[in-house]
């Protein structure tokens, strides 16, 4: 039987990419609101309650408002915004880390933030295995393509070609920090330094580790082996090959995709390591993860219509 889907915020960056991925899927039918009605509260309320699955691609306040409009037990929700990522009653939509069964059974799924996806993919399995401490003050440095900031940041970067790097969250209160801390089980909030670069899409998230100074920390080879074992069998989370050239590149022309690649680099004596994740902020960082969660919730193969 065909299941109906309403993407609230379908005209935005994340919503458009989800619709592209779902085009041609016979298992789903899309409920669409035309341009004149896509922000009309009554039209949205009707669509939100008619759909089997709702995917929210909205700013946080509008996402909270949309959830409050759902007045039936049947409609299941995937929220791409930050509104519900540490909220009680919501399942964190990172199936590799939260568990596929939990996502499959959930009525309310919060899609992880793009930076958080890289951070949690790297750190959660290692802390859980006791190979890195849960009580260490981790740092995370990251760069994102400008599509991570939605329509407004895309317009800004495409109008001002002179911006070569944009550091932000300078007062250290980035909205992804609570989910990073909660879903890695850390007792101390990580210190997070994000920046935007003049590429449309793509991101690199890095956790530098002064292993020799850390209590209960394994060596880089053990960390790499543990991540490879944890994600063995996943077509989406993969281990990258150490580049023979000695450098990693993110190219502005890259088309992106729904995989995430993980790397563990270490120095000769194993006293320092760099955990690095490379992903597409619009892929596993947003739309690809929404479609993966939708597939799992609908009981379908998790990689259907993903860009692998
Ligand atoms: N871009 C990314 O890489 C990622 C984004 N996200 C999250 O996904 C969500 C969507 O982000 P993104 O697609 O980038 O943002 P965009 O700004 O590109 O799109 C948001 C869309 O929501 C629409 N909208 C705003 N308010 C309402 C409302 N009250 N009712 C109906 N529609 C409304 C906007 O309309 P209009 O077109 O008129 O402005 C716009 O089309 C956000 O919460 C974002 O944080 C999550 C992970 C990564
Ligand atoms: C480059 C850029 O601005 N990125 C966004 C995060 C994108 C993302 O993951 O969004 P949500 O957490 O809202 O879902 C930011 O840092 O606010």
From TrEMBL:
| Compartments where located | Cytoplasm
Query: Protein name, please?
Result: N-acetyl-gamma-glutamyl-phosphate reductase
Q: Which HAMAP family match?
A: ArgC_type2
Question: What EC number(s) does this enzyme carry?
Answer: 1.2.1.38
- Which organism is the protein's source? Sphingopyxis jiangsuensis
General function of this protein:
Catalyzes the NADPH-dependent reduction of N-acetyl-5-glutamyl phosphate to yield N-acetyl-L-glutamate 5-semialdehyde.
Reactions that this protein is recorded to catalyse: N-acetyl-L-glutamate 5-semialdehyde + phosphate + NADP(+) = N-acetyl-L-glutamyl 5-phosphate + NADPH + H(+)
User: What are the Semialdehyde dehydrogenase NAD-binding domain coordinates in residue numbering?
Assistant: 4-105
UniProt cross-references to SUPFAM superfamilies, sorted A to Z: Glyceraldehyde-3-phosphate dehydrogenase-like, C-terminal domain (SSF55347), NAD(P)-binding Rossmann-fold domains (SSF51735)
